[in-house]
Every structure is written in C-alpha cells, then in structure tokens.
Amino acid sequence: MAIVELSIGITCFNAQENIVRALASVTHLEKVNYEVIIVDDCSTDNSIDVIEKYVSELVSSNDRDKFKLVCLGKNIGVAGARNTIISVAKGKYLAFL
Q1: Which residues lie closer than 8 Å to 30 by C-beta, 6 or more apart?
Q2: Cα dihedral 74→49→32→2 (10° resolution)
Q3: Is-contact 95 36, C-beta < 8 A?
Q4: Distance of alpha carbon 64 from alpha carbon 66, whole angstroms
Q5: Which residues contact 87 (CB under 8 A, 6 or more apart)?
Q6: R_g of the chain, CA atoms, integer Å
Q7: Contact indicator for 9, 96 with CB cutoff of 8 Å
Q8: Which of 20, 56, 85, 91 could form a disulfide bond with 4, CB atoms 3.0-4.6 angstroms apart?
C-alpha cells in the first residue's frame, strides 16, 4: 500500500442531510494518495447508515479502503471528534472538512 499523503477528517453529528455532499467532495481527488476519516459523534439520526451506504454503493471498489468510519461511544463534541481524527490519521498532511 502506498504512503498516505493526505488525511481528510470529517466530523459528523446528525448530518444525514449533508454528509453525502461532504463525502462526494473528496472522492474526486486525483494525483494524491488520501484517506478519509469520518468520526460520528453519537448521531441520533441515520447518519451512519447514510455514510455506510454511500461508501459501499457509490465509492469505487478501489477507493473503499480509503474511507474509515469511527463511531464514538459517547458524544464528546467537535473538538474531541477532531482529536480522534488526529489520533487515527496516517497522512503526512491533515485537512478537516
């Protein structure tokens, strides 16, 4: 596996209406090896189902392994969710959406 150049972090809390737009914006990246880390901060809507469906159905099979969903056990807020992304990220660079 190639070295990850860019880690893209997306925090999610009850974002079922908007999360697909965020995910779609990163699937068009070219010429960079990236990973996408989505941290769900205990959503009470269908965010997780929407994310899983998007990744399994709409992301090409070659890119699915670039997406990692982390579901937190309790709500810790956006700062805590971002810290989780930082602890999981493997890229040389880190960007948040």
Answers
A1: none
A2: 80
A3: no
A4: 5
A5: none
A6: 13
A7: yes
A8: 91
User: Which residue has 């670039």 as its token pair?
Assistant: 66
pLDDT band with cut points at 50, 70 and 90 for residue 63: confident
Q: Which two tokens stand for residue 4?
A: 């990850």
Q: Report long-range pairs for 71-79 (Cβ below 8 Å, ≥24 apart).
A: 71/40, 71/42, 72/39, 72/40, 72/41, 72/42, 73/42, 74/42, 75/13, 75/41, 75/42, 76/41, 77/41, 78/11, 78/13, 78/41
Q: Is 11 exposed, middle or buried (0-12, 13-18, 19+ CB in 10 A)?
A: buried
Q: With pLDDT > 70 as the criterion, what percentage of the chain qualifies?
A: 98
Please tell me the pTM assigned to this model.
0.91
Torsion angles phi and psi, residue 51, rounded to 5? -65, -50
Partners of residue 39 on adjacent β-strands: 11, 70
- N-to-C CA span, the chain: 25
